[in-house]
Amino acid sequence: MRLRALPLRVRLVAGFAVAMLVVLSLGGAFVYWRVEYALDRGLDADLDRACAALTPLVGADGGVRDRRAADAAGLPWQVVDAAGAVEASGGGAPAVPLAPSDARPGVVDVGPMLPADPAATRVRVQPLASGRTLVVAVARHGRDEALRELFAQLTIAGVACLVVSCLVGERLARAALVPVERYRRAAASIAAGAIDRRLEVPEDREDEVVRLGRTLNSMLDALEAALTRERRFVQDASHELRTPLALLGSRLQLARRRPRSVAEHEEVLAELEVDLARLTRLAEELLDASTATDVRPAGDVPTDLRAVVATVARELLDAGLDAPLLVAAPPEQVERIVANLVGNARVHGAAPVVVRLDAVGDHAVLAVEDAGPGMDAGLLAAATERFHRAPEARSRPGAGLGLAIVAELVERLGGGLRLCSGGVHHVAVAGPTTVDVPCRHGDATVVTVLLPRARAGA
């Protein structure tokens, strides 16, 4: 928990320092071991040569037949009996035994390396055929001094390397975290209200921090769009609900001005019921408009546009296309598009209302045509705006959200929307430019939707 409370830069440097300490320690230990091994091999070679020269000179009684030849070996030696007493010695060996009494046959180090001991030796204990033991020693001061010097140099070099590595690691960690700190400050300003600000992401780099910045910018775009929709929904709701609520209040005030009979109260209640039904429809349309842009991916199962049209308006479907027409869009979104177009044609147009389907290249074409008086050329460009209605349409049901919902859905799905009335053609949502939708002449109003078809095998 204490480590987690430290800044990330400190934790990175600490982790790097621990890793470097382990690496340097292991490297230093390996070098020390190899040097120690080489020095010990040199001493052991001297001991082996001395033992080879002394062994034939030791008699069965423990005496040495040729002392001059024994001393020529150049190393201190002793012949020790089974009780540990020294029977013979030479080469400057002391009177006390060279090897501990419990020493086993082989090579034994006598005396510590630290602190420095001038009398430290390396001895070989070799059993003889007579039951006695030959002990040969070699001074270890040169080997120990070399190892102590090596240990000191490795320690100094390791500490220096560790310090330099920590300094470099701290600089690198600081430089690597500079963009993160910049992103944090930008995020703080965005949280304070600057929702249109975005993180600065360099275009000439491609690393983890750059990808993080791009992901955060995408998230900020989505959050800004959601916040914009929320604010728009609140504004639309307050704007559209103000008039019906004021009308309800006026009806209630008029009903309270004078005593009324039961029949008159029933009449007032009937009027209030009509107003409440209008408010309910308006609330539902506002909810549909607020969720129109929540388009999810089509997934693995495409939607049969012909089946959706047959379900929503079977009696209006032109029988020119009998095969399934699969589009890459969720079924609930396709159903909402078809329902809004057919509903608009029925409410604001005139019979007959005809729905036509066709396939042009990579797109499915859905056209809804009615025989009404059509729309003025000036209204076509504003027909997909929220709450926009012609003056003569204000007395009809609806709040002017149908085509706005369709336009938003079609744009999110990657399609196109065309409006045609009175021989005037208007592109509400550009969509694919390779699909040509001819404009019909006459007063009929035709709304055409282009949706991308599902890929083969989907």
Provide an overview of this structure.
- By secondary structure, the protein is of the alpha+beta class.
- The protein has 3 domains: 2-147, Beta-Lactamase; 208-290; 303-452, Heat Shock Protein 90 (2-Layer Sandwich).
- It is 49% helix and 15% strand.
- The strands form 3 sheets. It has a 5-stranded antiparallel sheet.
- A hairpin with a 5-residue loop joins β4 (121-127) and β5.
- α2 (8-54) runs antiparallel to α4 (141-191), α5 runs antiparallel to α6 (262-290) and α7 (305-312) packs across α8 (331-348).
- The chain is rod-shaped and about 145 Å long.
- The mean pLDDT is 82.
Question: Summary?
Answer:
This protein has 458 residues and is α+β, with helices and mostly antiparallel strands. It is 49% helix and 15% strand. It folds into three domains: 2-147, 2-Layer Sandwich (Beta-Lactamase); 208-290; 303-452, 2-Layer Sandwich (Heat Shock Protein 90), CATH 3.30.565.
What's the SSE blueprint?
Elements (H helix, E strand, L loop, with lengths): L1 H4 L2 H47 L12 H5 L5 E4 L5 E5 L15 E5 L10 E7 L5 E7 L1 H51 L16 H49 L5 H29 L12 E2 H8 L13 E2 L3 H18 L5 E7 L2 E8 L6 H4 L21 H11 L3 E6 L2 E6 L15 E8 L6
Helix pairs in contact: 2-4, 5-6, 7-8, 8-10
Q: In the CATH hierarchy, what is the superfamily of the largest domain?
A: Histidine kinase-like ATPase, C-terminal domain
CATH class of the largest domain: Alpha Beta
Number of strands: 12
Rg value: 49 Å
The CATH architecture of the largest domain can be given as 2-Layer Sandwich
Share in β-strands: 5-15%
Question: How many separate domains make up the residues?
Answer: 3
In CATH, the topology of the largest domain is named Heat Shock Protein 90
- Helical content band: 40-55%
Low-confidence stretches: none
* Main sheet characteristics: 5 strands, antiparallel
Give the strand order of the largest sheet, numbering strands 1, 2, ... along the chain. Answer: 2-1-5-4-3
Ends distance? 51 Å
The structure class reads: alpha+beta
Principal-axis shape: rod-shaped
The arrangement of helices and strands along the chain is HHHEEEEEHHHEHEHEEHHEEE
DSSP helical segment count: 10
Mean pLDDT: 82
